[in-house]
Design brief:
Blueprint (H helix, E strand, L loop, with lengths): L1 E9 L5 H17 L3 E17 L2 E13 L4 H10 L3 E8 L6
Antiparallel strand pairs: 1-3, 1-4, 2-3
Helix pairs in contact: 1-2
């Protein structure tokens, strides 16, 4: 399994139940692909560099996880069809030997 990080943001005006549903959907997709979530870091509201869909702020969340590379395409597909997620980015992290 490889290490990845997912950064996504939603509309800050969304209710907490919808945000929780998005997080649960991501967790479920990672778990179904035999992946493991390492860390979830909620950044909160941040100003966007440019307006997207008439939004000037976004509520950001960073998720570090381990998964098989084949599962990343499915996670990307799920994020694309989830209406609450405005933008997302999945990148591979380097493993740091300790």
């Amino acid at each position: 399994m490889k290490a990845y990080e997912l950064l996504y943001f939603v509309d800050p005006a969304l209710d907490p139940e919808t945000r929780l549903a998005v997080m649960k959907r991501i967790d479920t997709t990672i778990a179904e692909g035999a992946g493991k979530v390492d860390n979830v870091d909620e950044w909160g509201k941040r100003k966007l560099a440019y307006e997207i869909d008439k939004l000037t702020e976004g509520d950001y969340t960073l998720i570090n996880f381990h998964a098989d590379p084949a599962m990343i395409a499915e996670l990307d597909r799920v994020l694309r069809i989830t209406d609450a997620v405005i933008r997302h980015m999945i990148v591979r992290r380097d493993e740091v030997a300790e």
